[in-house]
Amino acid sequence: EQGATEEATAVAHPNIALIKYWGKRDEDLVLPRVDSLSMTLDVFPTTTRVRLRADAAHDQVTLNGAPARGEALRRVVAFLDLVRERAGRAHRAVVDSENTVPTGAGLASSASGFAALAVAAAAAYGLDLDATALSRLARRGSGSASRSVFGGFAVWHAGPARGTAQEADLASHAEPVPTGDLDPALVVAVLDAGPKEVSSRTAMRRTVDTSPLYESWAASSGADLAEMRAALLAGDIETVGEVAERNALGMHATMLAARPAVRYMTPATLAVLDRVLRIRRDGVPAYATMDAGPNVKVLCRRADAGQVAAALWEAAADGTVLVAGPGPGARLLGGDG
Ligand code: PMV
Fold first, then answer.
1. Boundaries of each Diphosphomevalonate decarboxylase-like N-terminal domain copy (predicted)?
2. What mean pLDDT value characterizes the chain?
3. 274 C-alpha to center of ligand 1: Å?
């Protein structure tokens, strides 16, 4: 029982990948096929409190005040089991999570959610983990959560394709990415905040298993990452944006070619993509990326974000537009939070 605080609260922010994580090589350990790179945002934090309960027979989980059930509950319990196994403790827990991002809308609620849960659960169960170990742990809840452990830009290493499972597990974590003079913003066009029809988990598996385009995208993604890292270091937002846009469109192409096809883009998505081209033609560097949902996130300079947001408002019809900057890594809140 030593070292356990019995209760801990953590906050984490979502991240948006500029080089995408798409496809697993090990579903159980959540080992990705490709390296990915993201920016952690300064909006939509998730705050999660974990309290150990000596007398409880089951974990009790609430998400935004409502009891979690089904798959959402199963994933949190499986994650807590992993923490309990490492900590050598059997206590069940009460988990309360407040999420400010629309859940399941392709805005990475699972990233902030599992990053916050990893940090809070590790502390509550008395595991003393550094950021690298927390990233590795968060990965097991949701791959993209490994990156939200860190603030700013982070790269998540896929780890060696060969070797033991233990070697792969150890190597697959995120770490901060050095950048040059870059004052970036992501302008988010929320086009449909409803839950998605195909989960990213299902879509990834189907793509890897059936898409004839998957292997070529995965291969080109390595080159995209190298180019992206150099552009970030050089503070070259045009190249960062160009590479991010082609990497995301390529990922969506792999899904469109899956059998049956997975299509997250809607007419509203395409209207916003058209607008991004127009913004660029008007001389403002702005580049789109999309995840497992219809929403579009547009990378631009902070100084141009107001102008980009105004243009997207026009194109986004019934949607909402907001501007995010680089945000902090996951952290424990002091006291009782
Ligand atoms: O972490 P997951 O399993 O929700 O996967 C997220 C995958 C994408 O958001 C589509 C891409 C990424 O790298 O975040």
1. 12-161
2. 94
3. 24
What is the 182 CA–ligand 1 centroid distance (Å)? 24
Q: Ligand 1 — pocket residues by CB below 6 A?
A: 17, 20-22, 36, 108, 110-111, 142-144, 200-201, 291-292
**Cβ(21)–Cβ(65) below 8 Å:** no
Q: Which helix (H) or strand (E) holds 306?
A: helix 305-315
Helix axes 200-210, 237-256, angle to 10 degrees: 70
Structure confidence at residue 317 (pLDDT): 80
What type of residue sits at position 66? Answer: A
User: Residue 319: what pLDDT?
Assistant: 84
Whole-number Å distance between alpha carbons of 243 and 19: 8
Q: Model's pTM, two decimal places?
A: 0.95
- pLDDT computed for residue 106 by the predictor: 52
Residue bearing the CA closest to ligand 1, atom 10: 291
Map out the domains of the chain with their CATH numbers: 7-179 (3.30.230.10), 184-324 (3.30.70.890)
List, in order, residues 6 or more apart from 73 with CB less than 8 Å away.
Answer: 59, 61, 67
Ligand 1 nearest-atom number relative to CA 16: 14
Measured from the Cα of 251, ligand 1's closest atom is 10
Of the candidates 46, 2, 9, 45, the residue with the CA atom closest to the CA atom of residue 120: 9
pLDDT beneath 50: ranges in the chain: 1-3, 104-105, 336-337
- pLDDT of the residue at 100: 84
